[in-house]
Amino acid sequence: MSYIESLNENQLDALKEVGNIGSGNAATSLSTLLHRKVDMKVPAVRVVDFDEMMDLVGGPDTLIVSVFLRINGEAPGNMFFVLSPDEAEAFVKEMTGIDNFSVMQPPFDEMGLSALQEMGNILAGSYLSALSDFIHILLQPSVPLLHIDMAGAILTQGLIELSQESDYAIIIDTFINDVNSEREPIKGHFFLLPDPESFPKIFDQLGVSK
Amino acid sequence: MTLQTKDIVKVGIADLKTVTDPTYYLRTSGLGSCVGVVVYDLSMKVAGMAHVMLPDSTLSKKSEFNHYKYADTAIPMLYQQLIDLGARKFALKAKIAGGAQMFSFSSSNDMLRIGKRNEEAVQQHLEQIGIPIIAEDVGGSSGRTIEFNLSTGALYIRTVNMGEKQI
């Protein structure tokens, strides 16, 4: 029986807490990186079909900037940090001072791309290390991959393992919100997509197997 | 190329749709490693589009699965639906697009060359039925949105950074 279609209330709460802890730590990292306050929205745990997942970021042919990490270790899975083009550009300007950085037209500025990749790396890394501490399972993130393309094309890559078992994905979705009235807010989505076989392990560690 | 206001039949991920009215366009968005398969009989005005995600249903870990997800199950179903709608086997033609390698490394064995495997599986299963592929835009590393015009038989392909084309 696939876990995905039969989650109980406690398990959903446990996953929500997973998202809370991970993104809380990531928000702290982003705050340090930008030297200002960054807020985090209470995470949502969603069981969605693949088309609905694309709709969460604006539809399958929406242009997104995505940092992908493969999680290796005892509870493998995939992780995306997704920004809209505007948000990515605003972030690069702030980090590097490059005013004309654009993700709309290649060739892209190398320094800007590198800054984005590093941000993804820092945020996802801090998310995963907090998560790893919380569930007492060692999670090793891969080298981050930066992509700028259609949401459908990028995100389906993270669904390949999962799609062999189910037509639904459990998405632990968190929103990071940069609260500063003077500047453009940076909002980012974290999508944590554990492989199907990782759910029993995570639930076991959190005492919600049943 | 206009992708806005006209009658669109949307084909989702691991989905299949058919049209028999040439004022309707078949569209699927954000193909990465997935492959979009269009099969049509232009003079009978019957067309179908499948958005194939994986090459082979033996990959499925469940006995009940969505048949539109896999090339080996989706293509025979697409063929049968078109025949049921009045398409003639000898007149069927196919156009395919997608099968990109989106990620420069594979996260696991399953993801290894998945775009290429999808492309090869689609070609193989179309050939088995005897449907010729008269145009294709496959491979590369870009996402594609495709749209099929049943009145002309043209397949429009839009990418983010590689422009638009028609095959």
Q: Would you kindly provide a written description of the structure presented here, covering whatever features stand out?
A:
The complex is a heterodimer of chains A (210) and B (167). In chain A, 42% of the residues lie in helices and 26% in strands. By secondary structure, chain A is of the alpha+beta class. Chain A has one domain (3-205): CheC-like (Chemotaxis protein chec, 3-Layer(aba) Sandwich). In chain A, α1 (9-34) crosses α4 (110-135) and α3 (85-96) packs across α4 (110-135). The model of chain A has no long low-confidence stretch (mean pLDDT 83). With 167 residues, chain B is of the alpha+beta class. In chain B, 18% of the residues lie in helices and 34% in strands. In chain B, the strands form two sheets. A five-stranded mixed beta sheet of chain B has the order 1-3-8-9-10, with no helix packed on it. Chain B has a five-stranded mixed beta sheet with strand order 2-5-4-6-7, with helices on one face. In chain B, α2 (114-129) links the parallel β6 and β7 (133-138). In chain B, α1 runs parallel beside α2. The interface between A and B is large, with 37 and 36 residues.
